[in-house]
Amino acid sequence: MFRRRFVPHLVPATESDAQALAAVIGAIKANAKPEQIVAANIRVPDEPVNKACDEAVDADALHAIPMEVLERLNRARPEKIIPAVVPLILERSREQVRAFEKTEEEYEREADAVMETARLDPRLEVIEPEHFTWRTLDGREMVRLLRKVRRRADDGVMILVPSGPYVRGSARNDDEWPPRWIFEDAFFIDETPVTNAQFGRFLAEANYQWKHAPGLPVAKDDHPVVNVSWRDAAAFADWLDTTPRAGQENWRTRLPSESQWEKAARGDDQRVYPWGNEEPGEGASARANYGGAEIGTTSSVRRFATGRSPFGLFDAAGNVWEWCGDQYNSEFYFESVQHNPVNKVSVGGSRVVRGGSWDGVAWFLRASSRHYSRSDARYDYYGFRMSLSLVAAGAPVF
Fold first, then answer.
1. Please, what are the domains in the chain?
2. Predicted TM-score (pTM) of this structure
3. Do the Cβ atoms of 206 and 178 come closer than 8 Å?
4. How do residues 30-45 score in pLDDT, each as one tens digit?
5. What angle do CA 245, 325, 115 make, to 5 degrees?
């Protein structure tokens, strides 16, 4: 059953979704007070009502409706009901993050300061940056300077994702709605998923009791480690953070937040996949290791160079699902802040996984696609990558 809440004297509960939505539209046209109109989880109605929405709800009516009501007019496939809602929500949410934005010069100075902090951190080695060529959605080639560090403990390479806004979510699935502009402060994130070689060093040096009896595979050092639970990944992060230097204690290695992961995978232009809007392809021409690539297992983490994200990440789509730090909540996008959002409230005890895997379909390769699993789950298509970011003193990481 879907949930539906209406103000009785304005929008009476009705038998069908089409009638319910028509009642909402009628209330809008009758100049009802916007705060009295509350509609949640109305399912996609039939085509006649779609057409009625397009004709009945004009821009002035939409502008009069508060953001929280706009976002809930239809949670399931909202673009099929009121196409004008999506750009309006994005326009309003962009206004709400402008307070955090900086000039280009300020962003550059901030990035320089972050790299200087990294240079002083004994856990890290600043390495040569990469002049990375990527394509915009209209096909133009752009060059981005990827600033990088290498972790001394496991040789993991991390890329700096500068602070700035991006669009999180989409109108393609219930739990990805509503799309909003989000501002993320600067953070580092692994260029690739953590490999078997990296995880092997952790097992040896930390004497960690991994509950995957077969152990690491042979001759797959550069493949992503799999059969790791969220707790295994969190333990790996704790191992990397065992020797913080005075002054850098608040720069914590951890699983990326769901928002950090999406920004790093998607960039700031609302693309569908890390590489753009083109479909992933199949067989030898595939841009990612998923079911359509017909590989049937994991692959080297640097194999799919044509599938890199605008920030240079490999395998942000495919190969393995990647654990994020957040608890999973299908309603979180309605409730979250727009500055460094992290969901720490458990709903069923599940954690977020992102990115799709070698045995999945293209739908899950989308950068906005969300999925979840128990934190103790271990599968041969689950892996992870690390992030490094500033965490408030005394605050729990997740």
1. 17-83 (no CATH), 106-390 (3.90.1580.10)
2. 0.85
3. no
4. 554 444 444 433 333 4
5. 35
